[in-house]
Amino acid sequence: MSILYKSTRSNDVQVTASQAILRGLAEDGGLFVPMQIPKLEVSLETLAEMTYQEVAYEVMKLFFTDFTEEELKTCIARAYDDKFDTKEIAPLRKADGAYYLELFHGSTIAFKDMALSILPHLLITSARKNKVENEIVILTATSGDTGKAALAGFADVEGTSIIVFYPKDGVSPIQEKQMLTQKGDNTTVIGIKGNFDDAQNGVKAMFNNKDLEQKMKENGYQFSSANSINIGRLVPQVVYYVYAYTRLMKEGAINTGEKINTVVPTGNFGNILAAYYAKNMGLPIDKLICASNDNKVLFDFFSTGIYDRNREFILTSSPSMDILISSNLERLIYKIAGCDSNRCADYMKALTTSGSYEIDANMKAELADFIGGYADEDKTAQVIKKLYESDYYIIDTHTAVAASVYYDYKEASKDETKTMIASTASPYKFARSVINAIDTKYDTLGDFELIDELSSLSKVKVPQAIEEIRSASIRHNTVCDTQDMQKTVESILKLK
Fold it and tell me: Which is nearest to 257 in space by CA: 289, 282, 287?
């Protein structure tokens, strides 16, 4: 069955998977969505006997139907190789009654590696399939993790260059150093004097600027995106939910077909949307529990049906979730609006013009499978300490937000359904916040002294991604105002 893609904001254009991957964002500003979500074609029992790479093929082939078997399997093999420090790629760890899906075993120790390891290969294959001769410029905004994972994925990939914008004072020291030390002649990193939403809005504005698009074309360039707005990012994330469920089956933790709950720490909404797509494919997921930090715009949305970004932006110890405009929520809005692109476009217009919108009762009823929760800074720290003391298991701040929401939900609902928590980053990425949660006596140590102390406490070897930046030199030092983002891009690309 061939799957085509359309925009969430119009019915005018239908494109293939490779065309959607290449474009990143639809011309009308909408996001590409599959015209139908395919069902899994092989049994859960069969999937349980497969490797991660084999499961990836069984899932992705259903979405990327214009890729040949050889093309897709080649992309998968190049992505999920020894750059991951475990053959399982995404192992599970049981701690205090929940199953933690560790998504941080890739080269940049965050869950973004799971999709950004394969996106460059999907993109280059898509370019060849569509006879693209322009150099592809990956333009991306990051709240911390996407940037490094995208930079690592696209570094020195022929026919591409990558420009990453990040909030200068809105990421952890380790996240920033990972980006600023990135090698590759085709990589550029730019700090902005603003927050992630400012960076994301600036990037979207450039994608939607027709004059800039024409100028790019005249100079032999075209934009694409590595953000989770790109369907080539979202679909690979579906894979690890399918894989994890079948591992729980294989280990005897659940029976075949038994429903589980899934908790996902959520910022831009891509990761939990992938779980929702997996559920729609037939994976036995019951509740999708959306965990927010103090920037609880999504918690309020699931509680009230009102999405309102008109609020204070709060910097937290879980910076990858410090987001007030969750771009991927648009795909869910489109779905629960009955795939009505006009209604979806109206909601997104309201978000742009007034900063808020309210869904109707019928749409809210479609969200019955979602549960919203949030954890403030104190609760986040308490959960890190609790898990360390109970299981000697150390989690990062984002995972701790999810764990806190899980405990709150379980206590309030008395729901004993077995639960999987998406563990989205290594604690080493947020060492100071993590170790201070365990004991503040370490706070006088330097960043890398903290890393070594964390290794001693956790009995986990310091990841190669951290070792690499101990003595690495800074290669990127550009900072700009938000209003100068386009001018900076034009200067980097030497547009005439």
Answer: 282
> What is the per-residue pLDDT for 229?
86
- What's the one-letter identity of residue 297? V
With pLDDT > 90 as the criterion, what percentage of the chain qualifies?
A: 90
CATH code for the domain of 272? 3.40.50.1100
Burial state string for 193-203 with b = 16 or more CB within 10 A and e = fewer than 16: ebbbbbbbbbb
Stretch (H or E) spanning 480: strand 478-480
Catalytic: which of 61, 73, 83, 112?
A: 112
Q: How many contiguous H segments (helices) and E segments (strands) does the chain have?
A: 22, 16
Type of residue numbered 327? S
Does 292 reside within a domain?
Answer: yes
Determine whether 87 is an active site residue: no
Residue with tokens 């007034």: 354
Q: Are 51 and 230 in contact (CB under 8 A)?
A: no
- Is 308 among the domain residues? yes
Q: What is the pLDDT of residues 51-61, one digit of tens each?
A: 999 999 999 99
DSSP 184: -
In terms of DSSP bridges, do strands 356-358 and 306-308 run parallel, antiparallel, or are they unpaired?
Answer: antiparallel
C-alpha 307/C-alpha 298 separation (Å) is 7
Question: Residue 376: what residue type?
Answer: D
Cα-to-chain-centroid distance, residue 234: 8
**Residue 201 included in any domain:** no
What residue ranges in 131-179 does DSSP mark as E strands? 135-141, 160-167
Residue 288 · residue 260 · CB < 8 Å = no
- Which structural domain range is residue 439 located in? 92-109+232-467
Q: How many structural domains comprise the chain?
A: 1
Taking the C-alpha atoms of residue 17 and residue 491, their distance in angstroms, rounded to an integer, is 32
Coil, strand, or helix at residue 448?
Answer: helix
Supply the pLDDT for residue 147.
87
For 57-124, the DSSP string reads HHHHHHH-TTS-HHHHHHHHHHHSSTTSSSTTSS-EEEETTEEEEE---STTSBTHHHHHTTHHHHHH
* DSSP 8-state assignment for residue 187: E
| Residue 459 CB neighbours (<10 A) | 8
- Give per-residue burial for 61-86: e unless 16+ CB within 10 Å, then b: bbbbbbbeeebbbebbeebbeebbee
- Computed over every residue of the chain, the mean pLDDT equals 95
Q: Are 63 and 97 in contact (CB under 8 A)?
A: no
For residue 44, what are its two tokens? 């859960």
What's the token pair of residue 117? 């390891």
In a domain, 320, yes or no: yes
The reported pLDDT for the residue numbered 212 is 96
Q: For residue 228, give the nearest of 140, 289, 350, 314 by alpha carbon.
A: 140
Model confidence band, residue 496 (pLDDT cutoffs 50, 70, 90): confident
Express each pLDDT in 362-375 by its tens digit: 999 999 999 999 99
Question: Which pTM does this prediction carry?
Answer: 0.92
Give, for 411, the enclosing helix (H) or strand (E): helix 397-413
